[in-house]
Amino acid sequence: MTAELGHLAVILALMVAIVQTAVPLIGAQRGWSNWMAVAAPASIVQAVLICVAFGALMWAFVTSDFSVWLVATNSHSAKPMLYKISGTWGNHEGSLLLWILILALFGAAVALWGKGLPLRLKSLVLSVQGSIGVAFLLFLVLTSNPFTRIETPPFDGNDLNPLLQDPGLAFHPPFLYLGYVGLSMAFSFAIAALIEGKVDPAWARWVRPWTLAAWVFLTIGIGLGSWWAYYELGWGGWWFWDPVENASFMPWLISIALLHSAIVVEKRNTLKSWTILLAILGFSFSLIGTFIVRSGVITSVHAFANDPTRGIFILLILGVFIGGALTLYAARSHALRSDSVFALASRESGLVLNNLLLVVSTLVVFVGTLWPLIAEMVTGAKVSVGPPFFNVTFTPFMVALAMVLPIGAMLPWKRAQLGRAMQPLWGAMALSVAFGAFVWSVMTGGSIVAAIGGVLGAWIIFGTVADLAHRVKLGKAGGGESLRRLSRLPRADWGKAIAHAGLGVLFVAIAALESGTVEDIRVVQPGSSYQFEGYDIRLDAVTQVAGPNYTADRAQLTLTRAGETRAVLMPEKRFYPVQRFPTTEAGIDRGWTRDLYLVIGDRQPDGGWVVRSFRKPMANWIWAGCIIMAIGGLFSLSDRRFRLAAGARKARRGATQVPAE
Amino acid sequence: MIRALVVLVTLVTLALPALAVQPDEVLDDPVLEQRARDLSKEIRCLVCRNESIDESNAQLAKDLRILVRDRLVEGDSNAEVLDYLVARYGEYVLLRPRFTAGNAALWLAAPVLLLFGGLTAALFLRRRSRPAEPAGLSAAEQKRLREVLDDDRIA
After folding, report:
1. Contacts of residue B114 in chain A, CB cutoff 8 Å?
2. Nearest CB neighbour to B92, from listed A243, A367, A384
3. Measured between alpha carbons, how far is A352 from A209 in angstroms, rounded to an integer?
4. Which of A14, A111, A179, A394 gives a 20 to 30 Å CA spacing to A519?
5. Quick one: CA dihedral A437, A439, A443, A446, positive or negative?
6. What is the pLDDT of residue B131?
7. Would you say residue B34 has pLDDT above 50?
8. What is the pTM of this model?
9. A343 touches chain B (CB under 8 A)
């Protein structure tokens, strides 16, 4: 019964979404405020209906209702509860419903909390949001119904792909979707602004929190995915330039560009048309990303032909939204010109450079990701584009970005003197070069990659500190005065500092990990030990253990140093009988400066086991960098100018606000 | 049916836990072994989804790893090993496509886009760094100006 209830709720939601799209749009065109007022309640009703549908699907998974086709093919009664829940979105139909749920929740959030928005803008935004909902609900209802029943339910289900049965990956998709769909808000605001023909600093203030939130979610989602790959895939890789990863990476890069260009609109009322274009691009890449993952089109052109209905529907949605938005942009964007003046050396120029590097690097990833498809269609040649290509073409952009970031971040608006703006940074530059030299001398063999990464990362971090010190007049005013200024710094400024520092941490960690990983492969007899990176590692035993829905060979390895036991690690090799699928669980001794990463392999005919040992320098700092960046985003998000309904109540509160940057 | 089988095989080999290089494959000469590892990262495991033979657990990847090592032991240069593999398996085996006529657009994407974007940005910044010229008077305004100037009462 619950499945039918869910199905009904989805169909009702589709109807409500159609009303939400059409009525406010007509109302806004004709200036009928009672028609416009339909948008808010409609989006709330739509969200409630989809919550019901999603709840019904989740209930079917939790109770292992194998009469529902989706549950039978993707779940199993012996699966732990966490993965029964996360199994709801571990498949095409369920993840699509999750996507729609988040879309509807974002719409409802605007309806509930967007009280400061002008009615016309608000109803247009919700109308565009509704139209995205219509497209996806139609796709769900017509081609991917998650509630289909089967006539003779099987005794038990097919189980979820064991690789997905992991806490890291259980929550990876919801975060990514929160990010993708969060960008739909920026898109809706952009389309609404194009229809209205007006973009002003207030518009940028409304868009920025949504983009910030989307970016924070994407950062966490990508970080979770990378962390999962690191410990689950068995050799400590953290980024593979896989099409599916690139699909989430491209919206992330564009959302950073959008965040920065929206600042220019907000502060200086310029770059308006470009910011609108970025808002459209950000969501376009989200849509393309969703479909790269969902359609499998990148894996092979033929995957597309497996299900032509879905394929054509996907192309239709992409065409209507991306094509429609760009057409509207071409027709309307000239009305958004502004004529504010700024010098070549200015914060504005710095942010234009930031946007240039981010957008071009995104397009490079885009071309690389789609190239196998393009080549096959155009010349019929089958080519591969893998990590070696992306490392060569993408890295230079990030190096350039790191070099200019601290300078751009310190330049004043409008007109700057480069020499004067750079003055507080010379110390930071000297320190970062010193840090690079230190890294170079510490790394055995003196890796130049590690040294360069170290210099760049340190340059960003020290540059950020120098920026803060400069802003609070450290050393120029008294200590008390500096402290007072520091405590008065707007949250957005803290956010900027923290997020930039997180990027610096990420640079250092990536350089260290990429250049300093040490690896050892050998056959070890149970009871014997070997030397690795200053440790004595003894393979105590390998035992068979049974998990809830798998069996495993579990090794116990004891790490001793100078006769003292430092860690006992238990790497596993699991086998999931239902899906006939093996996985590895690495044994990791985590540390501040390095991870020791042990993996157990196959048993050899002589009774020994293959053991692989890695020393991964700075590994955890990659994810720490992601977390720090996300915290920076949250700080910025909590800035009071976003909490106040963006200027609407400013007059009443008096002009006591600190202008935030 | 065959297509379904292909999909199935792809799914099964997709991201199998990578145990990759086995102890018995490792060469005694550490320099050659390091070259083999570096080369392996450039070579695609043909039956896997976007994995190099260095990472992959598939039998074919193992065969290719041994093949690469055999060629290196026989004294091939890195380029010769890659040429040999391309001759046997086609360009598809390379994870970093070569710069050929067919792949030119791929390799030129980064510099061309950067150049194009950079020029656009430079033009934009140049225009913005100069105060906008005050717009000329419209015909109606000119007429009105003449009227005012010609007006004897003011003069």
Report:
1. 356, 360
2. A384
3. 21
4. A394
5. negative
6. 61
7. yes
8. 0.89
9. yes
Same domain for B45 and B81, yes or no, is: yes
**Closest to A394 (Cα-Cα) out of A609, A529, A249:** A249
Question: In this structure, is residue B18 part of a structural domain?
Answer: yes
Question: What percentage of chain B has pLDDT greater than the value 90?
Answer: 33
Q: What is the pLDDT of residue A569?
A: 94
The answer to whether the Cα torsion of B143, B148, B153, B155 is positive or negative is negative
CA angle A537, A603, A610 (to 5 degrees): 40
B31 touching A, CB under 8 A? Answer: no
d(CA A194, CA A197): 5
Domain limits, chain A: 2-385, 395-516+621-629, 518-620
Whether residue B119 sits in one domain with residue B89: no
The CB density around residue A570, as the number of other CB atoms within 10 Å, is 17
- Tokens 């100018």 map to which residue? A641
> Same domain for B82 and B47?
yes
A256-262: long-range contacts at Cβ-Cβ below 8 A with a sequence spacing of 24 or more?
A: A256/A215, A256/A358, A257/A354, A257/A355, A257/A358, A257/A359, A257/A362, A258/A186, A258/A211, A258/A282, A259/A208, A259/A211, A259/A212, A259/A215, A260/A351, A260/A354, A260/A355, A260/A358, A261/A351, A261/A355, A262/A204, A262/A207, A262/A208, A262/A211
Put simply, whether B34 touches A (Cβ < 8 Å) is: no
Contact A147, A6 (CB under 8 A): yes
Residue contact B17–A389, C-beta within 8 A: no
The answer to whether position B87 is within a domain reads yes
Residue-wise pLDDT tens digits, B95-137: 999 988 888 899 999 999 999 999 999 998 888 877 655 566 7
* Nearest-CA distance B66 → chain A (Å): 16
Contacts of A231 (CB under 8 A, 6+ apart): A168, A585, A586, A588
Evaluate whether ipTM surpasses 0.95. Answer: no
Q: How far is B30 from chain A (nearest CA, A)?
A: 12
A492 touches chain B (CB under 8 A): no
Write out chain A residues lying below 8 Å of B50, CB-based: 240, 242-243, 384, 386
Same domain, B11 and B75: yes
CATH of the domain at B22: 1.10.8.640
Task: Tell me: do B114 and B87 sit in the same domain.
Answer: no
Most B CBs within 10 A among A74, A235, A579, hence the mutation to make, goes to A235
Please judge whether B50 and A243 are an interchain contact, meaning their C-beta atoms are less than 8 angstroms apart: yes
Query: Is A359 in CB contact (< 8 Å) with chain B?
Result: yes
A31-38: which pairs have CB atoms within 8 A and are 24 or more residues apart?
A33/A119, A36/A119, A36/A120, A36/A122, A36/A123, A37/A119, A37/A123, A38/A123
Query: What range defines the domain where residue B51 resides?
Result: 2-93
Task: Answer whether B124 touches A (CB < 8 Å).
Answer: yes
Nearest CA in chain B to A302: B3
Identify whether B148 is part of a domain: no
Same domain? B18 vs B85: yes
Has residue B136 been placed in a domain? no
CB contact residues (below 8 A), chain B span 50-109, against chain A: 50, 52, 55, 90-97, 102-103, 105-107, 109
Q: Identify whether the C-beta of residue A435 lies closer than 8 Å to the C-beta of residue A458.
A: yes
pLDDT < 50 stretches in chain A: 300-303, 305, 645-661
Strands (E), A58-160: none
Residues B53 and B115 occupy one common structural domain: no
Specify the number of domains making up chain B: 2
Query: Do residue A343 and residue B15 have CB atoms under 8 angstroms apart?
Result: no
Q: Which two tokens stand for residue A287?
A: 């849509």
Contact between chains at B118 and A344 (C-beta distance less than 8 A): no
In this complex, is the C-beta atom of B121 within 8 Å of any C-beta atom belonging to chain A? yes
